[in-house]
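Q: What changes when flavin-adenine dinucleotide is included in the input?
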Amino acid sequence: MGPKRVLIVGGVAGGASCAARLRRLDEQAEIVVFEKGPYPSFANCGLPYYIGNAISNEAKLLVATPELFRNRFNIEVRTEHEVISVNRGERKIEVKDLRDGSVCEETYDALVLSPGAVPARPPLPGIDLEGVFTLRTIPDSRAIRAWIQESGARNALVVGGGFIGLEMAENLARRGLRVAIVEMFDQVMPPLDREMAEYAYTHLLQNHVSVRLADAVVRFNGSDGRVTAAETRGGAKIPADLVILSVGVKPESRLAKDAGLELGPHGGIRVDETMRTSDPHIWAVGDAVEVRDAVTGGLNLVPLAGPANRQGRIAADAICGRPAQFRGVQATAVCGLFGLTMAMTGVSEKRLRQAKDLDYAAVYLHPNDHASYYPGASEMHLKLIFRPSDGLVLGAQGVGGQGVERRIDVISFAIQKGSTVFDLEEAELCYAPQFGMAKDPVNLAGMVAANVVRGDVSLARWNELPHCSAFLLDVREEEEFKRGAVGAAVNIPLHQLRKRLSELPKDRPIWVNCARGQRSYYAVRTLRQHGFDASNLSGGYSTWEVWYPKGLPPGEVAQAEQTPRDRAA
Ligand code: FAD
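A: The predicted holo structure follows.
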């Protein structure tokens, strides 16, 4: 038998990394990559920054050229060649040369599908007007740049406030455009829990981006074939001479489906742990496949560059007969927004609730990224989700300035290794005052959560606040309390608590808050040892502000009560 012939469909993240790994493992194999676009191996993640001029030289987006593939790796890359069908019985593909329309057949021993995903384009009236764009490729970004320049666009509308939408909002604002976002959900950045996304929402407003939440574009209006405005379900008319549609992506699984390969429940290509499809000679990787969620065990679409690259390597290993296994994904991701960092890993509280899995708890903390005595320290907001029965770490979200992504990366790795909150308590992380704290935010998160698992403190759930019958106690100083309170909480500063225990009820739960959750933890410890049923409102007033930015919903008054002393007065 001659050398193995491996054909790869799609020459960017997953396809290119698979090709390069294959060559490192098998010097004899014949490797051919088919890419329907004009460029292989380009930096899709850099496209918003190219539009925003943070990257000014387009050539910088080309990570590797066909010449480099040929000269360095002896890999043939055929750009502007679309694979149009797969004949599994004869192990052949049909390839169309997009430059002249000719079609040829190629045989394979192994076929790798890495065709990526396509941006969703909802069939709205006016969607085909000039000035309405999606963003996936270098030509897309070139067209958006040209439109800004040539049309003199002033008002940009970004439809969808997820990763690409937010990155585009920032970059268009940097180009001097007035930017509006319309988002269907009641929050931006849907993978975050709503209260954590509140920081991003506020930050957008501070940066003069207008945001309509819980609304949807229903049509685009135009003049002379060019977009001029969008109308929303909520009745708003938003002027727009540039529209970016960023309402999600769909796995590009048409080729696989037509070839009779099994698809998963979300329409992505079904693969096993070695990235092999239902056909033993075909592998698939990247945005087109469904992957196992490492935390929930369910199948999911996770269109991110890291998993695509790792899967490409795994498929190459498997094709070369090496033992390799993809461990699944935790959807670890990060997004920048006007200097704010949002990072996340593992499962969110929202997803757990949707799955009706209530064996979880969440703690909030608001530590500085580095020692507060060293100049430039900034606050970050962390949420850690874990299983209270055994302390298993399930997920984490962080929003803030510097150092957020580092903490989420550490927790991501902890999740991958099946770690508990006790492991986070003990994690040994590097420290010097300009970089962190001797008790790093990761350690602190572990400690706060471990207190819950050990039973030293119980948690009050923020989402239950509007309907709770608990007595709300605020242990901040009077001056702090005067600036605002959690619902109708009663103020007894921590240093007075032991002397004023008689003012507190023993016949109902007491939910305690302070500014950030530390003093309330001390208070809960004191109260529990005096026989009170006390729980901590984790993260304190800082967390209240994002859970209930407009206060409690009308008609919901959490504990409009007085202490016995107030009543006597
Ligand atoms: P792709 O990289 O999209 O490659 C698929 C290629 O296959 C395409 O070039 C396509 O032309 C080609 N193709 C499709 N069908 C055929 C066919 N029939 N024949 C031949 N060729 C075909 N991820 C992150 O983790 N972090 C980020 O910051 C980030 N930012 C992003 C910003 C933008 C604007 C975009 C669009 C994506 C971003 N992503 C980011 C997602 C990341 O780029 C993708 O997850 C990753 O590229 C997926 O790799 P892939 O190989 O599956 O698909």
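Observations recorded in class: The chain is about 25% helix and 25% strand.
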